[in-house]
Amino acid sequence: MTPPKIPQPTGAMNPLFIRRPLHPRSKSTRSSPVRNDKIPQKHMWIVTGPAGCGKSTVAAFLSQQLQLPYIEGDDYHPALNKEKMTKGIPLTDADRWDWLITLRDAAASALQASSTRTGVVVTCSALKRKYRDVIRVAAYNNHGISVHFLYLHASEQTLMARVAARQGHFMGAAMVHSQFESLEVPGETEMKDVIAVDVNGPLSEVKAFALEMVREELGVEEEVRRKSQEY
Ligand SMILES: Nc1ncnc2c1ncn2[C@@H]1O[C@H](COP(=O)(O)OP(=O)(O)OP(=O)(O)O)[C@@H](O)[C@H]1O
Ligand SMILES: O=C(O)[C@H](O)[C@@H](O)[C@H](O)[C@H](O)CO
Predict the structure, then answer these.
(1) ipTM value of the model?
(2) Residue 40 banded pLDDT, cuts 50, 70, 90
(3) Is the pLDDT reported for residue 121 higher than 70?
(4) For residue 126, which atom of ligand 2 is closest to its CA?
(5) Where is this region: Disordered (predicted)?
(6) Which of 27, 43, 97, 207 is found 20 to 30 A from 214 (Cα to Cα)?
């Protein structure tokens, strides 16, 4: 007997699958189990990645284009953390813990500050899975909040060169290697809320792509919510 034909994945034909090289995801896996799709969502756009990947640059652009407030994660590091990084000493989990919680809560407060505010853009290296999980708690605490990570990625060599060329920043190029040592690239199990953005290319393309991804994400969520309201 001839075995049944197994349908082949069609993802390769979808341009989104090509442009999300790390963890392409299907639109059908959108809604998280903690999310009530009938509640209007406010969005945390967390721009992540190792030092020099362009978090601040991309976040400022998204904030301006989407008319959303922007919270710079580095402003929330205690002085001791900045001192360590300035001296070339990598932060530990313990150094990052309170910072992550404070930053997450500041982002949640910014969303709650106004009933018409629909989102906030935040920079946060969020290098490890457990750090991203700390931020995700915002959505568990408040089901009206959606957390999204834009994971900016490029080679260590590229980021080292960008940080070396940057002027007047506390983080030196020698620290980039330690950032990659800490980094846990978002894996398969995180594909629901992580959008991978390749930042090896020119800034204009990176910005346009990041904005396109955010708009697409908003469109998908709106569609899910609209459908849920039909039932
Ligand atoms: N796609 C790009 N192409 C070329 N240069 C870039 C690109 N993205 C960012 N840069 C430059 O690289 C440097 C690092 O960018 P930026 O400061 O935004 O990164 P960051 O992730 O916020 O860094 P940090 O975490 O160290 O604060 C800046 O000088 C910026 O202009
Ligand atoms: O977790 C960390 O090690 C820090 O957040 C760093 O990533 C820096 O603050 C940032 O990259 C500045 O260059």
Answers:
(1) 0.96
(2) low
(3) yes
(4) 1
(5) 1-38
(6) 97
